[in-house]
Design goal:
three-stranded antiparallel sheet; alpha+beta
């Protein structure tokens, strides 16, 4: 009976590892290599850091793009309204030009005061437009025609002006921010000498070398 009891208790006891052997052996990976938990954690931390940095960069780009769009909408959002206001400014300017020519010299004090009031209103209108980023510009006579700023209405055969320059300003132009709101309407001179091209850096360098050679 005692022999059977010892045999049963021996069978019930679990197998214990030999002294000096680890309790559990490392599990092999799919490639057959032993997985290092510290290395796996470090790799996962690096991946999470990279993902975090990418997310932060995307958020910064989104913030900058949003700020730029808000700034542009603030500046250029009034473009349509400003074009309608320009028609009022043009009519006021044309009326003032006619009144200055016909009445100002021989007008009485009341008419002169009226003209001064209209001129003051025009200046105030331009000041309000500038406050909202709309700026008036008028080309100077003999200024070289620039298709980015000017719109040619007709040509003037004036030999006293270089060909391809502004002879007359039909209507002033307007900028909104750094964009063209409306080009200036101009008359372009023809028949005179060609406008000299603007000197470049290379031209100045060639002139300097020529002067040194002559000396």
């Amino acid at each position: 009976m005692m022999t059977d009891t010892r045999r049963a208790s021996a069978d019930a006891e679990p197998d214990t590892p030999e002294r000096g052997e680890p309790a559990t052996a490392p599990q092999p990976t799919e490639r057959g290599e032993t997985a290092d938990p510290i290395e796996a954690i470090a790799r996962e931390a690096a991946e999470l850091k990279d993902r975090l940095l990418r997310t932060l960069a995307e958020m910064e780009n989104l913030r900058r793009r949003t700020e730029r769009e808000v700034a542009e909408s603030r500046i250029y959002g009034v473009a349509s309204f400003a074009r309608d206001i320009l028609a009022v400014a043009d009519n006021m300017d044309r009326a003032l030009q006619m009144l200055r020519t016909e009445l100002k010299e021989k007008a009485d004090a009341g008419v002169k005061a009226l003209l001064d009031g209209v001129e003051l209103t025009e200046r105030e209108l331009l000041k309000v437009l500038e406050k909202h980023g709309v700026r008036k510009f008028e080309p100077e006579p003999r200024e070289k025609f620039d298709p980015n700023l000017h719109q040619a209405m007709y040509e003037v055969p004036d030999p006293s002006l270089p060909a391809g320059t502004v002879a007359q300003v039909v209507q002033a132009g307007y900028m909104i921010g750094d964009r063209m709101l409306r080009p200036a309407l101009v008359a372009v001179a023809k028949g005179g000498p060609r406008a000299a091209p603007e000197p470049t850096v290379n031209d100045h360098a060639d002139a300097g070398r020529l002067g040194s050679d002559q000396t």
